[in-house]
Amino acid sequence: MAWTARNIPDQSGRTAVVTGANSGIGYVTARELARRGARVVLACRSEERGARARERLVRELPEAEERTELRRLDLGDLASVSGFVKELPEGRLDLLVNNAGVMALPFRRTADGFESQFGVNHLGHFALTGLLLERLLAAPAPRVVTVSSGLHVLANIDIADLNSEGAYRRWIAYARSKTANLLFTRELAHRMADTPLVAAAAHPGYASTNLQTEGVRMEGRKAAERVVRAGNRMVAQSAEGGALPTLYAATAPEVAPDSFTGPRILAWRGGPAPAWRAPWTRSDAAAERLWAASEQLTGVRYGASA
């Protein structure tokens, strides 16, 4: 029988942070964790959109009003990441879901000068996880789940050009950032081997979210945006379906460190199952090099225990 959100174990007493919780997979993840009793922090770049999302969540799940809160987090700005962590009141964190992301954008730079897809999808979450690590390790069974993509197979990282200073191809840059998510998960799992922390990754397959339309909308390509929206309606699974691999990786007791979970049917849709990953995402040498570069770029060092 396929695993569904009804199989999520009781989350009472656990605190979770979900990035990008204002829409799509992040919203569903936050809602279902709250449904099962978790206290959930919705970490969103836009306070306005985040507030609307929380209002919607409470309408759908009135009992979650007392255990959900909104906090602003812009993963494209390391000062915002640091500020988010400093203002977070919890002394202990049980679950961090690194969900937020951008996809196939025209070339942009983050507030700190990084190429936007690498900066938001990888470096922002690298910094956030590092700054929250002490709180995670204070929990009895902590997890970090990072949302990658099946499209990571399009490209390995280029350690000599992490910020795409050479030729910029939006889909290759996206794929590299998603490969970086998997290499980060692998190295974090290795570094946490002597702790209870489980670092795992997931991907949603093809799920209908705002992610697909963001790039073409930014460029004002209205015809392309209509085509993408039509494709979402006809072929993509729902955000509810796309969130299942993340929810499984975040809550199922049997999830192993450095595991990668995706949809069962052709890596596209269906219940959670082990996902295929490109061989380069299993390279310990590449994971170590990316980790060292990420520490240098962000200024966040995980300390002796990491």
Describe this structure in words.
There is one protein chain. Helices cover 42% and strands 14% of the residues. With 306 residues, the protein is an alpha/beta fold. The chain has one domain (12-298): Rossmann fold (3-Layer(aba) Sandwich). Strands 3-2-1-4-5-6-7-8 form an eight-stranded mixed β-sheet, sandwiched between helices. Helix 4 crosses helix 10 (284-298) and helix 5 packs across helix 10 (284-298). The protein is globular, with a radius of gyration of 18 Å.
Distance between the termini: 38 Å
Mind summarizing the main beta sheet? Answer: 8 strands, mixed
* H/I helix tally: 10
What structural class do you assign from the helix and strand content? alpha/beta
Q: What is the β-strand count?
A: 8
The total tally of domains equals 1
Q: Which fold name is given in CATH as the topology? A: Rossmann fold
Question: Quick gist of this model?
Answer:
The chain has 306 residues and is an alpha/beta fold. The chain has ten helices and eight strands.
Topology:
Elements: E1 15-19, H1 24-35, E2 39-44, H2 47-60, E3 68-72, H3 78-87, E4 95-98, H4 116-137, E5 143-147, H5 170-191, E6 198-202, H6 211-218, H7 222-235, H8 239-242, H9 244-251, E7 260-265, E8 269-274, H10 284-298
Parallel strand pairs: 1-2, 1-4, 2-3, 4-5, 5-6, 6-7
Antiparallel strand pairs: 7-8
Helix pairs in contact: 3-4, 4-5, 4-10, 5-10, 6-7
Protein name: Oxidoreductase
Keywords: Oxidoreductase
InterPro entries: NAD(P)-bd_dom_sf, SDR_fam
Notable features of this structure?
Rossmann fold, 42% helix, eight-stranded mixed sheet, globular, alpha/beta, 306 residues
